[in-house]
């Protein structure tokens, strides 16, 4: 089949930050996680599956998910008023610059009586360590990590996870790459010289570039700035 890189602003791997903002939110396939928080269905289903597998249904709270452009602007303006410039610049993105517009980012907190809605607590130890590990294995990245502030321009946010899909999350974890760094590395891999990970083949395509493949399954995602990433999945034969 033929794969064409025709939409660089669509997909699970979009990079959204202060340098590459979005003009509009993506409100497709959203479901409610609780009475306030909405998120893309795939994200909700995976997190619920992990919670259930680990018996953690009552330990995790969905604090913030999908946000509209207008709502992100309101959070920014309100935080600026109540907490000032320095705090706001650290933790809240300007309207088009937040991943929450994608519906693929979720802020998760430990269930407790008082939850801080800007900076919820999510431990790294005990059963939460296992929960975090399962998130990486199922296509999520801890998007703003300690030591990556120079690259992401956002302070460490141990509660903010971004769905990018398998195996991208694990490649980023194994190499200690932020999403910004991953996209820079991916540009070195083309169809002839792809990045390989287990049964997956990954490469970069320029806008409107085409390739032919015999792979049984593929995904394509824009990077939101200058091209697309193709992921081919080879299903193992059991004959
Ligand atoms: Zn967040």
Top CATH class: Alpha Beta
Give the SSE string. EEEHEHEHEHEHHEEEEE
Small-molecule binders here are: zinc ion
Tell me which CATH architecture applies here.
Answer: 2-Layer Sandwich
Arithmetic mean of pLDDT: 95
Largest sheet, strands/sense/barrel: 4 strands, antiparallel
State the low-pLDDT regions, or none: none
How many helices does DSSP assign?
Answer: 6
Structurally, how many domains make up the residues?
1
Strand content: 15-25%
**CA-based gyration radius:** 18 Å
Distance between the termini: 24 Å
Measured as a percent range, the helix fraction is 25-40%
Q: What is the CATH topology assignment?
A: Muramoyl-pentapeptide Carboxypeptidase, domain 2
Order of strands, main sheet, comes to 4-5-7-6
Helix and strand composition category: alpha+beta
Shape: globular
Outline the structure in words:
With 239 residues, the chain is α+β, with helices and mostly antiparallel strands. The chain has a single domain (2-233), classed as Muramoyl-pentapeptide Carboxypeptidase, domain 2. Helices cover 28% and strands 21% of the residues. It contains six helices and twelve strands. A hairpin with a 2-residue loop joins strand 8 and strand 9 (200-205). 34% of the residues are buried. The mean pLDDT is 95. Zinc ion binds at residues 64, 100, 105, 107, 160.
């Amino acid at each position: 089949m033929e794969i064409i890189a025709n939409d660089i602003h669509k997909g699970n791997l979009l990079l959204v930050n202060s340098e590459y903002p979005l003009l509009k939110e993506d409100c497709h396939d959203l479901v409610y996680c609780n009475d306030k928080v909405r998120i893309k269905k795939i994200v909700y289903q995976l997190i619920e599956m992990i919670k259930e597998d680990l018996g953690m249904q009552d330990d995790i709270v969905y604090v913030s998910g999908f946000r509209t452009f207008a709502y992100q602007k309101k959070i920014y303006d309100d935080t600026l008023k109540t907490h000032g410039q320095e705090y706001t610049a650290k933790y809240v993105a300007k309207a088009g610059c937040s991943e929450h517009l994608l519906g693929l980012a979720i802020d998760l907190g430990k269930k407790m009586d008082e939850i801080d809605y800007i900076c919820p607590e999510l431990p790294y130890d005990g059963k939460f360590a296992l929960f975090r590990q399962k998130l990486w294995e199922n296509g999520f990245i801890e998007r703003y990590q300690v030591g990556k502030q120079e690259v992401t321009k956002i302070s460490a946010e141990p509660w903010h996870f971004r769905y990018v899909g398998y195996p991208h999350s694990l490649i980023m974890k194994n190499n200690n790459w932020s999403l910004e760094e991953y996209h820079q590395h991916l540009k070195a891999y083309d169809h002839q010289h792809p990045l390989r990970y287990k049964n997956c083949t990954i490469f970069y395509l320029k806008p409107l570039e085409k390739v032919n493949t015999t792979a049984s399954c593929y995904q394509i995602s824009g990077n939101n700035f200058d091209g697309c990433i193709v992921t081919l999945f080879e299903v193992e034969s059991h004959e």
